Amino acid sequence: xxxxxxxxxxxxxxxxxxxxxxxxxxxxxxxxxxxxxxxxxxxxxxxxxxxxxxxxxxxxxxxxxxxxxxxxxxxxxxxxxxxxxxxxxxxxxxxxxxxxxxxxxxxxxxxxxxxxxxxxxxxx
Length: 124
Description:
mainly alpha, Rossmann fold, 2 domains
């Protein structure tokens, strides 16, 4: 999505792409922060969040705590502005513990029940 917004921005079609991503009743952004964002990407994402603010729902998943989003976006001011809009009227669900993938590996015996971080690194 961010790549599409970046391409649209460079080809002077950003407004068209923002309208496209603003239309769905629910926009799902999965694994936010998994890949590093280019500096301009944070500003484009902010524009999208602002466009959808109080008009359409956004579901965001991330392995990063909101306190780390300044690093995720490379700009704490933009991260704060994004979070301000996302967290207003929101429900935050924090999930702790093993992912279902790791849980399945443990059940199948591929990973010991009490793995250390070093043991987990060998599996990935």
